[in-house]
Amino acid sequence: MPKKILIIEDEKDIAELVKHYLEKDNFETLSAFDGEKGLELVKKQNPDVVILDLMLPKIDGIEVCKRIRSDSKVSNVPIIMLTAKGDESDRIIGLELGADDYITKPFSPKELVARVKALLRRIERGGEKQKVYKFKNLTLNLESHEVLLDKNQVKLTSKEFWLLEELLRNKERVLTRDKLLNDVWGYDYYGTTRTIDVHIRRLREKLPGISDHIVTVKQLGYKFKENL
């Protein structure tokens, strides 16, 4: 049975483009062009994922996100926010209210579909997944989408955040580059895996004192090692 994706986006050209790419990948889609109609469809249709634009008529995306998360019947619906470049404060508020991921406009429709797949895969891997990971002076909080080092917030990109989550959740397990690309980027990647190496290098730079625990496993990939 195809997964049902609700697109709440007032720009009809963007909504149609996203709809086209999702349906090409065998998803069922629903569309709403304002926040009021979007909320109505969330409650009536109980979609598997909501793609939610922040700038909406009638009820804005932040308020839509807030109302979804406060309604016990639909509070667990995964949400991917669409944000304009420079809207960092809105993005942070949205993540704090419980959005699961975000993507910045302009975006590639293929990337958005990949994010949807990655999010669904994370959910299917287990609702039992813990919400907070702690290691030494590092804390990763899935609900607030925050990473703290010595209680100071570390600014990570969305990809860096989910890459770190993948490493922490699989401590002491070797994760191949192909697996990381598939699980974090949301698609099977054909060609160079250098993108993983670049993101690992950036993670290490942003996490002094923790970086040595992100270990390179020659010719395979990476693992998070607790005891050095």
UniProtKB/TrEMBL annotation:
Response regulatory domain boundaries: 4-120
GO molecular function terms attached to this record: phosphorelay response regulator activity; transcription cis-regulatory region binding
Modified residues annotated as 4-aspartylphosphate in this record: 53
GO terms under biological process: regulation of DNA-templated transcription
Keywords attached to this entry: DNA-binding, Phosphoprotein, Transcription, Transcription regulation, Two-component regulatory system
DNA-binding stretch(es), residue numbering of this chain: 130-226
PROSITE patterns attached to this UniProt entry: OMPR_PHOB (PS51755), RESPONSE_REGULATORY (PS50110)
Keyword Transmembrane in annotation: no
Highest taxon in the source lineage: Bacteria
Record-linked InterPro entries: CheY-like_superfamily, OmpR/PhoB-type_DNA-bd, Sig_transdc_resp-reg_C-effctor, Sig_transdc_resp-reg_receiver, WalR-like, WH-like_DNA-bd_sf
Domain OmpR/PhoB-type: 130-226
GO cellular component, one term: cytosol
Protein name: DNA-binding response regulator
